[in-house]
Amino acid sequence: MAENPNNQQPNNAESEKFVIQNVYIKDVSFETPNSPQIFMEKWKPKLELEISNDIKQLNDELFEIVLNITSTVKIEEKTAFLVEIHQAGLFAIKGFPNDRMSYMLNAYCPNVLFPFARENVANLVIKGGFQPLWLSPINFDALYAQQLEKQKNQPTTTDTVN
Hints:
Layout: H1 11-15, E1 17-31, E2 45-57, E3 62-75, E4 78-94, H2 98-127, H3 140-153
Antiparallel strand pairs: 1-4, 2-3, 3-4
Helix pairs in contact: 2-3
């Protein structure tokens, strides 16, 4: 292992900053459109899950990241419940190279927010009279890598001059 004679961090590590300023619910909704009849149905639920995130830069180093999760549970074709949460966070992030900054905003921050969203979804579902819905862990790193690969493989359009 090579030693750093002055025990100094590389310059880029000194200038990188990541701080969680706040984690909060920006919006939440819970619906049981077929209650109370749905409670009398045979319970063989089917889960539909939609996930996205929004990124808003507030100043040079402050970003609001919103993890949007919509979970719909159906019994056959009837919706048992629908829960939607916009779990948000304020993150101070600066000093990262562009590729790492993109990763921080699109994968790392959603990884931070997901456990909060997961717990809030479970609590809402319980309060709605159902068994808790424990969302499975999500690999945001893999989703980010897939998105990068998809962008890389998309043909770019170029204008040609004749």
